[in-house]
Structures are given as C-alpha cells and as structure tokens.
Amino acid sequence: MNRGVRMGMQARQQAIEAVAAQQRVARLRTAVAMIMLSAAGAMLAIFALPVFLIVFGGMLPTMVAYFLDEQPGRYLFRAVAAMNLAGVVPFLEVLWRRDDGLSAALEKVGDLNTWFVMYGAAGAAWLLVYLLPSFIIVVQDALLGARLARLEAARQTLADEWGFGDRR
Amino acid sequence: MAKTEGRPGLNAGLEPQRAVAVLEGRFEIDLARRLMTLDSPQAMAFAAYDIQNPHTATYVLVCRPDMPGRTAEIDKVMAVDNASLSNILAAGYLDIPECGGGNFVLALERPAGGRLTGNSRGAHEPFNEDVIREVVLPALLNALAALHEKRIVHRAIRPDNLFFTDSGHTQVVLGECISAPPGFDQPAAFEPIERAMALPVGRGDGKPACDMYALGVTLLSLLQGDIPRAEKHSDLLHDRIDRGSYATLASAVLCTDAMRELLAGLLFDDPGMRWTIEDVRTWLGGRRSSPPVFRRSRSGMRPFLFLGRECYSPRAIAYGFSENVEAARLAVRDERLGNWLRRSYNDLDLSDAFFDILGDPVELAAGRVLVDDEMLAKVCLTFDPQGPVRFQGQAIMLDGFGPALSDAVLKGADDTVKTITDILVLGLPLWTLRGNVENTASQQFRTAFRAFQGFARDTQPGTGIERCLYELDLGMLCQSPMVRSAVVQNLGDLVKALNAMARGSEQPKQRPVDVHIAAFVASRMPVNQQQKARAASDRAAAGSAQCIGDLALLAMIQKSAEVGPLRNLASWLASRLEPALHAYYSQARRKRIAATLKKAVSGGDLSSVLAVINDSRERIADRREYGAAASQYASVSNEIVRAQYALAMRQSLAVSSARRVAAGIAAIVLLVVCVVTVTGSGL
To answer: Has this prediction a pTM greater than 0.80?
Structure first.
C-alpha cells in the first residue's frame, strides 16, 4: 500500500471520527437540556405550581421545536420560543397580579382561549418561518430583476457606443 | 488639353467648318492641310495660322503619341534664341484624334526655302564646298554653339533636318530635335560608333562631341550628295570598328585637302580627340590647326574569328556577340577567346577580367559553366566599356535608358520593360561604371543607377520600374490607366485629372493612387513635401494608413500646386475613408466626424478633409474615453454576473435569511408584548 492511499484512508477515518464526536456533543447537549428542563420543572412545581402549570403547558411547542430544529443557528426554535413566550407572558402577568395563584392558574388552564393564544402564537411563528421565504423570494425577484435590467441596459448602451463585444 | 473642333476659319487660308485645333490659344492648326515636305520622321506637319502675328508663316509638327520625344527639354530649347535654329514658337499637348490623340505639338516658323536636300531624305544634288564653307557650316556652328552653351545636345544633325529660311538659299537653320528621342532618326553613319551600336531609341543624350561627329557626316553627305554607306547597318559598323569611321566613310569622297582635314577632325572616333566648335572655327578662319593624327584603335595581331567574321578588337567581338547570342555562348566557353586576349591582343588585365566573369576555368573547360545572359552582358561590357549595355536583345547607352524605357511603356512592350527592369535589377549599368571613380559624370551615373537598382528591386508604392520611368524621363506623362486619357505633365494636372475621373454619381471603386501615380508623385514632388505627407499617414490609426496616405499625398499636391476645389476627388477619397472612420471607437464621435467630413468634402479642400479625419487630438480623446468605457463595461458586467448569481441562488438565500428574519420578528413581538404587559400591569 503506497503512502498516498494510506494518507487518504487516514483522512477518511478522521472525518468519520469528527462526525461521531459532533453527534456525541449533540446527544450530550440534548441530555443536559432535558436534565436542566426537568430540574427547572421540578423546582417550579415545588415552589411555584401555578407558574409551572402555565409555563410548562404553554411552552410545549417550544420544546417540540427545540427537538425538531437541528439547523445551524436553530432559528425555527428561536422564533417559536420567542412567539410562544409572547403568548405565555400575558397569562403569567395575570398570575402575578392575582393573589389566588393556583385557582387563577387552573382557571386559565381550563380556558380554551388561553391555549389558543399560547399555541396560536407558537403556530404563527412556525407559519412565519415557513411562509417568509416565499415572500422574500418574490421581493428579491422584483428587486434583482429591476437591478439586472438596469445593469444590462447600461451595458448595452456602452456596447452600442463603443462597440464592445462585436469587435476588437 | 485642347480638343479639335469644327469652327469657322479666321483667315482666308482656312475654309469654314474645317477641323481646327488651337495651340495655346494662338496657333490655329488646319488639320486638313498636311505639309508633308516639312514632316519630321516622327511628326506630321500641318499648316497653322498665328492669330497674334498673322504675317509670320508658321506650321506645326504633331508628334506621335507613342514616341517619347524630348519634351522635358522643350523649355531649355525654346529659351535658346538663335537665328540658325528652327524657331519653336509654342509647344504643348493637344488631343488630335487624327494623329492618335494626346499629341505633343510644336509650332515653328515655316522655312521659306525648304530642306537643303529638297524633298528627298536620301540622294540629292551634291553641294559645292564653298556653299558648305560659307553658308552651311557657319550657321550650324552658330546653332550648335548656342545649344551647347545651354548644355543641350541636338542629336538630330543630318542633311534632311537642315532648312533654307529664304527662297534665295542663303540662310540655313538647323531643324527641331524635340519630336523624337536623341539620335533616334539618325542613320547609323551619323552616330559615333558606340551609340550606333545601341538601339535607335537607346542611343542616349550624348555629349557635344556627338553633335560634332554628326556635323562631320552631314558635311560629308552634303558633299557627296547622299548618305554615306547606307548599306547594311552591321557591315558598316564592323568596318567602322575595325578601320575607323573616317577611313570607312570619307576615304572615297572627292574634296579638297582642307575639307578632308575638317572631315578627319570631325570624324575622330575618340571623342576626346574629335574637333570642337573652336577647332572648326579656327579651320574656317583659315588658320591651320594641328592636323589630325590618326591612331588606329588598339587591335590584335591576328583576328579572332567569330561566325566567319574577323574581329581585331574586343569591341568588334562584343558587337558580334550582341548580334548572335547563341553563338556567343559557345565562343565564350571556347578557350580560343582567352588565348586571343592573352596572346594576340596581349591584354592580361582584360583577360583576367574576362575569366573573373566566367569563374573557374577548369569548370569552364569541362563545359559545366552555364553562360547565361547576365554573364554574356558582362563580357560585352568588359570588352566594350564605352558601348551600350547589351542584354537579351536590348542595347542601350547609359544615358539612353530614359527614352528606351519610355518607348517600351508607351508602346506597351511588356517584354522590353521586363528586360530593362532586369538590366537595372542586375546592376549592369553599374558594371559599366566600375573603375571610373575620378570622372564626375560617372559618379553621377553610378549614384543614379544605384538608386534605380533599388527602385527596380523594391515593391513599395512609389518604387518599381515605374519610378525608374519617371526619374529617367522627366517629360514623361503619367501613364496610370486612370489618367492616361488626360495629359498629366505635372502634379497639378494629376489631381485635376483624378477629379475629372471621379465626376459622376458613382465613385470609382479603385484606389486613386496606383503604382504609376505613386511613382509619378514620388519623382515629381519635393522630398520635404513627401515627408510631410508620409508623416500624416504615419499618424493614421492602424489599418487606415493607406487611405490616409493617399489623401495626405493628394492634399499636399492640391496645396502646393495651388489647385482650386476638387469636390469630386474629395468625395472619392472620402468614400474610401471607412477604415479611418472605423478607427474611432465611439459611435457618436464617428457620426459627428462623418458629418464634419461631409461638409469638408463639399468644400473640395483635401487638406480640410485630412484635418477632419486625421485629428490626433480627437483620436487621443477617443482612446482615453474608450479605456474608461472599457473598465466601466467590465465593472457593469461583473455586477450583472453577481446579480444573476443572486437571482439563481435566491431560493437557498431566501430560506436561510427568512429563518433569521422570522426569529428577529418573533423577538420583537416578544419584546413588545413584554413591554405592553409590564406597562399595562402598572409596574
């Protein structure tokens, strides 16, 4: 076996090992997130049950997005998280404002509108992430098309005046 | 050029509605009245009427259009005011279709007494010695002295070119010498040996001694009443070479010893020993000059036999060789010739020069040397350095190349033109001149023929055999097919003729400057003007040097010759300026220059046309702007590529950017909700 072949095999082996290492890191991160989430949930359940009920119930789409979004930057997760939280925050303010936290929490949990607002906000984020590219493409088409036309007109004017392209 | 026209006669001598041509607005030529007794061999005589001076009897000689006359010398000849010379009153070109068209015409005073020889060109009544001594000779000496003083050699002195100006036959004039090349019409006996060996058209201008020789034979002819020894040209020349001209021609003439002494002095074959005008005047005055001492030219002890003819001198051999080239090739290879040169003629230098030409004697003896025409010509020149250049049937004196070449061109003899071209390319005239370093005339000839050799070899415009033609014959009309129908004597005539050619709705397709015109201009235009015109074409943009060069040349001619507007020619030249116009990059500039060009063309000033199309400032600005535009074009092209790439990649870019944007929007919404919630709660 010559030296080149040996080096090629070594490089392939190194690449496989790097991917495996990344997968290990991802699994570890997921495990850490699960542990931290569980710990936070346990802490909330023990010390602030009403908040736990609203947050854990309301932020379920975010958790789903976290596990589904493996794209670099996790923008889907970020968008869903932010919007989901925006849907949850008004109900937390109600809990904050009323003294009967648990009963108020149970009241909100039992209200269908509460879930519609919290999950609707998360769904809107989800929808935004999937519809926005088409919108951007339409806008880009319009902008780039106009720019291209302007540039080609300028180039044609130069070619007509100076004969570029048809001689010399 | 004036045209013949039918018009009423202005005097009683001319009948109404007769074909009349007018020379210089002064001489009306009656083309129906031929005066055959006054014809020159190459010109027809017609009756003419002098409008300015009706009492002077005049006639005109209409020269052949295919014969190169001595038109370049007409001004010098007309400037000679001498009572013993035919008085040329006017000269110029006329288009006389009856005589071939495009004829050179001489208006002369009509000699009242006719020719000395009557109407005959041959035998006539012998003249008395006293008439010759008292009437003929003084007049001829007078005429020749006036001509030679102006450095003109007549070269047409013979009995039938002498006229009595009065009916009493007391005054003699020498006829014209313009209508034919020098020596062309002279019988061989009237030419010195070296020039008699040349073709009539190539006998050359000669020197005053040639006129003195012709004078001697003319006197001899008048004395004996006929042209001496008018038999076969070849036999006469061989006799003259071997025995000398005097012994051959004048030994049998019946005359006094004094006259014999004169003839002997004039018929010396050595031009250095030949009597001059002063010698003859001394003789006429009765004082005896030293009697001529005849020295026979050097000859071999035994003859060299060539084709059964005994040749005693190398000149005789050279002449024999020129008469039979194939036999000459064999004779040159034969060792007997070398032996004759060394042993019988006893000239080792000549023998060495002969073998230098032939090369290796062993190869020669073995028959492996090809004796070609060039080698044979060099042998003849070595044997007879004073003789003509003999090559492929041509025999031309050094000063006869002009008429010889002109004659060949005018007659359309392409083979002769090619032979003369070969002579010049091979430098055979220079071979004749080798060794003659002290002689000023030889140096001038050497310089001239070196230049002709260069021209003949060159293929650039303004060179070639055409350049040699116009340099050798300064009176030659421009022979370009484009202007041949017109009479183009000078550069002003040339541009006028081209302007006339371009008349009409459609422009000629060809270049206005062909090889003949380029050569004609190169030979007639002062060098500094040519350099200026060349500088203009040097400044021209790449690919347009030819059309700009033509324009610059013709513009220079229009300016220097002070010719008026030439709108047709300007239009013709402008139609050929496409390459120059396309040398500008900018379309807008092209349109602007084309519009300006149109205005300049309508003005007919070629210099203005040149200034518009060959504006270096415009070209520099055009180049500079082109450079800027090129970089701008490249930049725009790059931007287009980038935009096209962005358009092609918009899907993936939109997805990645949309996710970011969505996250951003969500964050903003969150922030707003938080703020509203907190502020709404009253915190």
So the answer is: no
Scored b (16 or more CB within 10 A) or e, B500-520 reads: ebbeeeeeeeebbbbbbbbbb
Contact: B662, A89; criterion CB under 8 Å: no
The CA distance from A101 to the nearest CA of chain B, in Å, is 16
What domain count does chain A have? Answer: 2
Tokens of B598: 């149109």
Residues paired with B363 in a beta bridge? none
Contact B637 A141 (CB under 8 A): no
- What is residue B135's DSSP assignment? I
The answer to whether residues A37 and A72 belong to one domain is no
- Just give the CATH number of B2-110: 3.30.200.20
A20 and A95 share a domain? Answer: no
- Check if the interface score ipTM surpasses 0.90: no
**Domain span including residue A161:** 48-168
Residue A85 · residue A117 · CB < 8 Å: no
Q: For B203-207, which contacts have Cβ atoms below 8 Å and span 24 or more sequence positions?
A: B203/B155, B203/B397, B203/B400, B204/B396, B204/B397, B204/B398, B204/B399, B204/B400, B204/B403, B205/B153, B205/B155, B205/B399, B205/B400, B206/B153, B206/B155, B206/B182, B206/B397, B206/B399, B207/B153, B207/B271
B663 at A interface, C-beta within 8 A: yes
- Asked whether the beta carbons of residue A155 and residue B588 sit closer than 8 angstroms, the reply is no
Task: Check if A4 contacts B (Cβ < 8 Å).
Answer: no
Whether B652 has its CB under 8 Å from any CB of chain A: the answer is: no
Instruction: Please report, in tens digits, the pLDDT of each residue of chain A (168 residues total).
Output: 566 677 777 888 888 888 888 888 878 877 887 888 888 888 877 877 777 878 888 888 998 888 888 788 888 899 999 999 999 888 888 777 776 667 777 777 778 888 899 999 999 999 988 888 888 888 888 998 999 999 999 999 999 999 887 544
State both tokens at B179.
């209508």
B677 CB within 8 Å of a chain A CB: yes
* Same structural domain, A68 and A33: no
CB within 8 Å: B650 and A141: yes
Give the Cα separation of B135 and A27 in Å (integer). 145
Q: By the 8 A CB rule, do A124 and A86 touch?
A: no
Tell me if chain A has a CB within 8 Å of the CB of B535: no
How do the residues of chain A divide into helix, strand and coil, expressed in percent and rounded to 5? Answer: 90, 0, 10
Residues A10, A93 within the same domain: no
Instruction: Indicate yes or no: CB of A85 within 8 angstroms of CB of B651.
Output: no
Indicate the DSSP class of residue B255. -
Assigned CATH class of B129-284: mainly alpha
Q: Tell me, what DSSP letter sits at residue B267?
A: T
In contact, B173 and B163? CB cutoff 8 Å? yes
Contacting residues of A for B665, CB less than 8 Å apart: 79, 128
Q: What is the CA radius of gyration of chain A?
A: 27
B2 has a pLDDT exceeding 50: no
CA nearest neighbour of B597 among B547, B635, B553, B634: B547
In this structure, what DSSP letter does residue B509 have?
A: S
